Amino acid sequence: MGEVDLSRYQRQMIFREMGEEGQKKLLAARVAIVGTGATGSTIANWLVRAGVGYVRLIDRDFVELHNLHRQGIYDEEDVRRGTPKAVAAAEHLRRVNSDITIEPVVADFNPENAEELVHDVDLIMDGSDNFFTRYLINDVSLKLGKPWIYTGAIAAYGSSATFIPGDGPCYRCIFAEMPPPGAGETCETVGVIGPVVGVIASYSAGEAMKLLVGMGKRNKGLVYFDLMENTWDVFDIPKRPDCPACGLGRYDFLNAEVGTWATSLCGRNAVQIVVSGRHRLDLEGLANRLQGVRDLHVNQYLMRFRVNGYEVSIFPDGRAIIKGTSDPDVAKSLYARYVGI
């Protein structure tokens, strides 16, 4: 990176707590964003415009038409091209700020590559859409001593929390165990209002800037925003001595002791998803939440439906077979979207 024209950041630098010194700290900072969908792309947009010097964009998905109502940096051309989100985001954001380094990584963030992908950054931003990835980020954060900021948005509400290893609680202090498949809401089952994404992701981006610069007051709780009720609350997060991660020092998700695994089925153009642990999935309940999908059939043995050219079969033990692809990342994305992990 050559000489930077700081006049780009003039309005930001005249903010008293930022100044030129704070701007230079941003330009020297390195951030990884895990997931560049709704929240992740919004966070990326703000951090790139703010002048964070190195931004790594990690995502396994492609841009789809249904993304566009809430993922503001993508457009119809990205959909037509079938562009990976990380690549499309990098292309758009490089046109916003050519002074910084933006690295797209088209990959599934998993226990095999997680440490490698974030070992050299100052901050990890959660832009994911599933529980497993957040538990994995939490494990990596604790092991490597990297702070991270959680961001979630669904229906008409959003939430955010900042976690700093050794200084307060971690994500598993709030959610000790990962919910079983089908127990959590997803955007496909309850929807999401686009502006909610913008509000909570923008808040998290602001928290990131404060943390990187060392300005302002740090949020030490769980922020919860509800658009329908017009409420903005902050809940205390007590640090739990018996927390499996920060209390007992277990990295269950990083060590691949729990989680979701995808295996291509040889010669079948299909991928099987297996969720570790013993779970019983309420197929009838899940079917009731997926009223918008095509050709949905359910019985005591399985639930089957078609979406975007794929056939998805889900079994009571949480296992699934996705036909129409041999790509584990595509299958995992569909599973996360319609079942939740």
Explain what you see.
- The chain is of the alpha/beta class and 341 residues long.
- Helices cover 32% and strands 23% of the residues.
- It is built from twelve helices and 14 strands.
- The mean pLDDT is 90.
Overview features:
eight-stranded mixed β-sheet, TATA-Binding Protein, 2 domains, single chain, 12 helices, 341 residues, alpha/beta, 32% helix, six-stranded antiparallel β-sheet, Rossmann fold
Distance from N terminus to C terminus (CA atoms, Å) equals 39 Å
Instruction: Catalogue the unreliable spans.
Output: none
Query: How large is the count of helical segments?
Result: 12
| Topology pattern, helix = H, strand = E | HHEHEHHEHEHEEHHHEEEEHEEEEH
Beta-strand residue fraction: 15-25%
Shape: globular
Largest sheet, spatial ordering of strands = 3-2-1-4-5-6-7-8
Mean pLDDT: 90
What is the makeup of the main sheet? 8 strands, mixed
| CATH homologous superfamily assignment of the largest domain | NAD(P)-binding Rossmann-like Domain
What is the CATH fold-level name of the largest domain?
Rossmann fold
Radius of gyration over alpha carbons? Answer: 20 Å
Number of domains: 2
Q: How many β-strand runs?
A: 14
The percent range for helix content is: 25-40%
Task: Name the CATH architecture of the largest domain.
Answer: 3-Layer(aba) Sandwich
